[in-house]
Write a structure and sequence with these properties.
This protein is of the alpha+beta class. The protein contains four helices and 13 strands. It has a twelve-stranded antiparallel barrel with strand order 1-2-3-5-6-7-8-9-10-11-12-13.
Length: 307
C-alpha cells in the first residue's frame, strides 16, 4: 500500500520529485523534509486551481485506479458480493443524477460520480467524488466540492460482536464557487472509527468522527459567520437485507457544530434502496437525505458498476 501511495504522488508531482531527488539525494533528512513540504503545498494549492485542471487530475487518478486494478488482477469474487455492508469494500463506479432543495428556495441539480478503488484483500479503499452541478440561484453550471476518503478495515469477522473495525479519513475540497452556489467555500476534514454488528438480515454500522470545518474563504461573510468549526459526527448505518439482490438502509446522523447549519448542531437522516440487476456487475438504486436544521434535502437516482 505504501508503494501505491508513493506511485500516485509521483504521477501527480513528477517535476517536483525530480527536483528534490537531484538536489537532496545525498541528504536524507533534507529530502524527507522537502517531500512533506511539497506534498502539503499541493493540497493547499488545490482549491486555487481552475476547475478544468482539477477535473482532469481526478479523471486521470480514476483511470489510473482502473488500470492498477486490472494489472493487480484483483477481480470481483466469483460468488455473490455483499455491498449491503459498508465494511465490505469493492472497486466500483457510481453514476448519480441528483437534485438538491436548499434554503431560501435555492436549488442545485446535476451529475455526481463516485469512484471507489479497493485493494485486492478488500482491507483498503480510496474514494473519489466529482460533482458537476447547476445552481438555479446563479444560473451557472460547474464543478462543486470534490471529496476524497481513505478507509481501512483491518479486522472483519461478522460471526462475532463486533464484527468489524475500520478507520477513515474524509475530506471535502472547496473547488466549487461559493458565490455561484456551487460550493461551501471551506475545507472540511473528518476522521474516526467504525465498527459493525450483524444479526442475520439486519446489521448496524456505528461511526464516530472528529469533524473540522475550516474558515469560509469569502469577504462577503462576517467574521463570526465564517469562522472555523470543531465538532463531531455520530451515526449508525442500519441495513436490512431483503435478499441476495436488494437491501435498504437508513442512517440517523448527529452533527455537532455542523457546517450545514451555520455552526449549530444538526440532525440528518439518509436512506438507500439498491437492487443488483446483474450479479457482481451492476446495481441500481435511489437515495434521499434530509438536514432537519440545515433545511436541505437531496434525492438521487444511481447506477453502480462493479469491477
Amino acid at each position: 500500500m505504501i508503494g501505491f501511495q508513493w506511485l500516485v504522488y509521483v504521477c501527480l508531482n513528477l517535476p517536483a520529485v525530480l527536483k528534490i531527488f537531484a538536489r537532496d539525494v545525498l541528504h536524507k533528512y533534507d529530502l524527507i523534509n522537502s517531500f512533506l513540504k511539497r506534498f502539503l503545498s499541493f493540497w493547499l494549492y488545490l482549491p486555487l486551481m481552475k476547475p478544468k485542471i482539477i477535473f482532469r487530475i481526478s479523471f486521470i487518478v480514476c483511470i489510473y485506479f482502473c488500470l492498477l486494478k486490472t494489472s493487480a488482477q484483483t477481480t470481483t469474487p466469483t460468488g455473490h458480493i455483499d455491498p449491503s455492508k459498508p465494511t465490505n469494500q469493492y472497486t466500483r463506479l457510481s453514476n448519480n443524477l441528483e437534485y438538491n432543495f436548499l434554503t431560501s428556495g435555492k436549488r442545485t441539480y446535476g451529475y455526481r460520480a463516485n469512484f471507489i478503488w479497493a485493494s485486492g484483500g478488500h482491507h483498503h479503499s480510496i474514494y473519489t467524488e466529482v460533482p458537476l452541478l447547476y445552481a438555479t440561484s446563479s444560473q451557472k453550471f460547474g464543478l462543486s466540492d470534490l471529496r476524497f476518503r481513505y478507509y481501512w478495515v483491518p479486522y472483519k469477522n461478522y460471526k462475532k460482536k463486533p464484527g468489524a473495525l475500520g478507520f477513515a479519513i474524509d475530506c471535502y475540497v472547496p473547488t466549487g464557487k461559493l458565490d455561484d452556489g456551487l460550493g461551501r467555500g471551506r475545507w472540511i476534514f473528518a476522521t474516526g472509527l467504525s465498527t459493525a454488528f450483524v444479526f442475520g438480515r439486519f446489521s448496524t454500522f456505528p461511526y464516530i468522527y472528529y469533524l473540522y470545518s475550516g474558515e469560509i474563504m469569502s469577504d462577503k461573510i462576517s467574521a463570526a459567520a465564517k469562522k472555523a468549526l470543531n465538532g463531531y459526527i455520530i451515526q449508525s448505518i442500519c441495513v436490512y437485507r431483503i435478499d441476495k439482490s436488494s437491501y435498504v438502509d437508513c442512517t440517523p446522523i448527529f452533527m455537532k457544530n455542523s457546517y450545514s447549519n451555520a455552526g449549530k448542531d444538526d440532525f440528518v437522516i439518509e436512506g438507500n434502496y439498491l437492487y443488483m440487476i446483474k450479479q457482481n456487475k451492476m446495481q441500481v438504486g435511489c437515495f434521499a437525505r434530509r438536514y432537519f436544521y440545515g433545511n436541505a434535502t437531496t434525492i438521487r437516482a444511481s447506477v453502480r458498476m462493479y469491477f
